[in-house]
């Protein structure tokens, strides 16, 4: 892989949530946020469509980013942050919302092409169900697949990355796991449609992110990687590497060995400490895991051989000696 | 028990959350909300302190409620809805916040006494941890216990109900389960301190709410009951009885048999359908479960006898015949 | 669908487990077990390969079953019940075990053809991982897919049903969800390979079984259905319908509307009450759910229309009136 | 604390389980097992009552252990490994089983006294419920508390450690969490009754073991510590430290700072690699975590101060520099 880090401005959000609707912080000083980003090894920026704070004009957008040593890396279509999407941007039965979403996605793809980003991120956030007997699954899947096909064909050469998540904001989301996303991608059947592997979503879906990475890469569908952490029972977007050490290390070990040429996105929320320190700590931890995993990759022949011989103990000893003081 | 239903205005909130910070609804028309409440069998209202929308003056508050056939039932101290509480209202190391919280709690208790409510609700929402090595557990517990003791002594005859919850808004909350709350209540050691059993929190903590109800009632500490539902992996405050049928039925069956003389609170969020319909549907379902459980209570001698003989099959057959068409 | 119930002899096992290795029961009296089965509406029997207790000779096997009014319905390949399969029957790196498993699977398929059953069940039970850095995911997936292809081609017209499960006996299983199984089935790419939807596994994977049923059926891959229940955090194979009422009802509602022409398997373990009563109670509950779901299917135009209009409350009221006394 | 490691022979079991009832291994060569134990820093041995393989005569038992440099550390009452305990050794309604269990517990306590061990382990394994409407919670709790009181009074000076666990072998166990155990211990109200903190059970109960350790120690009730690991959704007794790095490190950091003078028990099952290697790897990992945590304890003033100032980022940087190469 090429190890490219990018991020988005949600890392510097107000972090409003259900219990603290006015957020844990005031609106960020955008200049301060970009200076913080620029002080790290992050070199890419994930725009949203519509961009909100940054310029909508692609050239101005690029120039703005360039001042901070950044390039546009990805574009996220924001078809989830408003109540109007509550029945699902991709699967809704509401004709007008289907149209509105289609228009937004196509505009976002145009924007992405103009920026020259690696890929566009699509997250079916509200496409799911809360209650038994509340959603027509068959009709919903049909519409979702058809909409994705239309978007994929419009995108042409631009890659589209679909991001699975088990729950939140819906109690059960239609694209709830790496496996389900791979099924969907197959149903869509277009070469430019792949998967965004969010490590935290993968943990929340009781997956092993390393295994998910390998399986998706086997199918050449690893388009994006999002980095954060959690306790496996929710997706709070915690600082990467602060909870699941071994699994994140293993994930990085396999990721390094892929041909992935996209971006690893810093994708965290830090609501109880200042956002700048949290961001920098997260980048440092990602670098540390990358560095430790790289040392393990140097020993990959031994490691993989112990695996194929089912000698886990030997790997624990080997890794401990390499990693710990 | 006496079957008294109350509710709070959060059932008619905008339901802003992390992904939809501006909420799923506009601010409710308060009159419409109270008319909806008045159209059901709900007869109590849980004020917050500070009350926000309703009058702070106790007499005016009561008069307002009386117009809708309601009495003030409970008071919830809102020491969690603002970012300033982010390190925990009860356990924070910040001296000024300790003072501010203590003042708020005492004012709320005064308000509760003036209203003549059954009990005051205290929810240690931000008292917990997110990251390993981020919180001093010993100092936090010490402060939390001491603060609760001071509040309990101030409250005198007014009952205080502490509400446990496993997570959200913290990743791990200090008072995370019925058992932990019972330990805390014992540490506080004041007769007027008991427990608020939120059925959804109990499910999210992998408890059986019926068993929690029985155990807390054995200790005469069942002060409040909150009704909602979920898939056991989060606390979305769904309409009571729409997910966990058998366990909610069993909960109601045991609750009816206690001497509980407080309020059962309708405690739901309904972000994808109109709030009024959801509220009414929830009240109807609660009534239905109460009615079905009451029929089972009539057969309690047989049911309990089958339990003590470990003949579950007989109970399934008996209950199915009573409940289902 | 055609509503055909079958079962296997595991329902009458000794239920040995980790903490009670000698089991909760003595070995069953086979005659008594079959008399119990015959006393219910179960009409099919899932043989294992090798059959163990029943005759290996297909004609004798069929004659034995006929005495109890049963036909051979399915064949389960038992490539998980012995320690030798501990590194995975389908994905192991051990050449000799690959061969042994291949031979067993082919023999089982021959047996299935001779019996004339609907389909063969394949469960990759030990194909997974316990520890990070213990299994080579890429090599494992490659071998698993290749082995399934060879088995599928050997099977010819005989249907093969692959059964996903999130964990147990492995901490993480490779085929851990409906989605992952669908990806695997697509990778195998043979028309006779489909999915066994075990409702309990689906719950344990945090799925909504109704949605899984619809999605798999959309792909014409619903080959088997296994019925049991659990608390969503493990797979104890409890009596169907005793925990998740609404979701099981919704599952049955959608299942009835498919063209499924296979078998619904009673798949329970009842270790603390006598096996015969538990079995009969389970069959009665399945029939009850089928009956209730059938009543709902009669109203499917209204139900689906309320779903497409996102009017959940109306469905709750409608269903409650139909179902509850 | 004094850092004393002990273990039991279950680490060298056959590991029979539900799917592999004949186990993953043949019966261990006892001499080989004890030689393995003796080759590590383990210095204590947890006998079971009845001891099974080791001598029942206390002096012979001690002499046997002495040959391997071991002392008797703890006694575990085995009132769960036989089907007869299926309705709960402590809470059952069956009079004869109540008597039988009481006799076993008292004999075990006599044995423990004769051996001079630190404490006796009591695990209410089958005391719980599987199905709603299957167990009388009130009667069960009453009997359990009364039985524990009788046992505690008989034990006199001998310490009793009650071990909570959320589930398995029951779907829901009565003593399901650290908090519930503390409530029970308070109900029992005898000074010699405390808690066995099994790190894996604590994870499975969604607790933070470090916080549980601190809270129990605050009450002077930390009597035993069991070391293993898991993915938080089950209790497979994996090698300590192979999954939850940060939380286990934090746990060790706090444990070291207590006055705990009991034993830390190696409590693992290793069914897919040879038992001897797994055991030695586990001991080495425990030592490594102890060593790393000890380095952190040297910096405890800074660490705790950062916690009280809510400066998590500083702790991450500090700890990373101390721990990682």
Description:
Chain A is an alpha/beta fold and 325 residues long. Chain A has one domain: Alpha-Beta Barrel (TIM Barrel). Chain A contains eleven helices and ten strands. In chain A, strands 1-2-3-4-6-8-9-10 form an eight-stranded parallel barrel, surrounded by five helices. In chain A, strands 5-7 form a two-stranded antiparallel ribbon. In chain A, helix 8 (245-256) links the parallel strand 9 and strand 10. In chain A, helix 3 (95-115) packs parallel to helix 4 (137-155), helix 7 packs parallel to helix 8 and helix 10 (300-308) runs antiparallel to helix 11 (312-323). The first copy, chain A, is globular. The two termini of chain A are 28 Å apart. The mean pLDDT of chain A is 97. At the A-C interface, helix 4, helix 5, helix 7, helix 8 and helix 10 of A face helix 4, helix 5, helix 7, helix 8 and helix 10 of C.
Which key features would you list for this structure?
homotetramer, 325 residues, alpha/beta, TIM Barrel, 8-stranded parallel beta barrel, two-stranded antiparallel ribbon, 10 strands
How is the quaternary structure best described? homotetramer
Strand content of chain A: 5-15%
Q: Widest sheet of chain A: strand order?
A: 1-2-3-4-6-8-9-10
The global form of chain A is globular
The CATH topology label of chain A is TIM Barrel
């Amino acid at each position: 892989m090429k190890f490219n880090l990018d991020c988005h401005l949600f890392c510097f959000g107000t972090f409003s949530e259900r219990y603290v609707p006015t957020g844990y912080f005031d609106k960020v000083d955008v200049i301060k946020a970009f200076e913080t980003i620029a002080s790290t090894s992050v070199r890419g920026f994930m725009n949203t469509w519509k961009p909100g704070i940054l310029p909508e004009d692609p050239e101005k957008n690029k120039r703005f980013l360039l001042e901070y040593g950044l390039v546009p890396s990805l574009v996220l279509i924001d078809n989830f942050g408003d109540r109007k999407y509550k029945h699902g941007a991709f699967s809704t039965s509401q004709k007008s919302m289907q149209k509105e979403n289609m228009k937004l996605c196509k505009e976002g793809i145009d924007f992405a092409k103009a920026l020259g980003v690696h890929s566009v991120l699509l997250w079916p956030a509200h496409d799911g169900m809360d209650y038994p007997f509340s959603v027509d699954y068959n009709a919903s899947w049909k519409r979702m697949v058809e909409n994705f096909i239309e978007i994929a064909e419009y995108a042409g050469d631009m890659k589209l990355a679909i991001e699975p998540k088990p729950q939140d904001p819906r109690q059960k989301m239609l694209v709830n796991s790496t496996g389900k996303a791979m099924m969907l991608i197959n149903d869509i059947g277009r070469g430019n449609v792949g998967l965004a592997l969010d490590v935290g979503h993968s943990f929340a879906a009781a997956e092993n992110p390393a295994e998910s990475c390998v399986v998706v890469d086997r199918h050449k569908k690893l388009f994006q990687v999002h980095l954060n952490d959690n306790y496996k029972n929710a997706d709070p977007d915690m600082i990467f590497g602060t909870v699941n050490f071994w699994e994140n290390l293993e994930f990085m070990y396999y990721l390094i060995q892929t041909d992935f040429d996209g971006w690893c996105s810093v994708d965290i929320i830090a609501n109880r400490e200042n956002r700048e320190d949290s961001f920098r700590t997260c980048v440092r931890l990602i670098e540390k895991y990358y560095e430790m995993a790289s040392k393990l990759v140097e020993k990959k022949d031994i490691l993989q051989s112990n695996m194929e011989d089912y000698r886990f103990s030997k790997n624990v000893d080997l890794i401990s000696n390499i990693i710990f003081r």
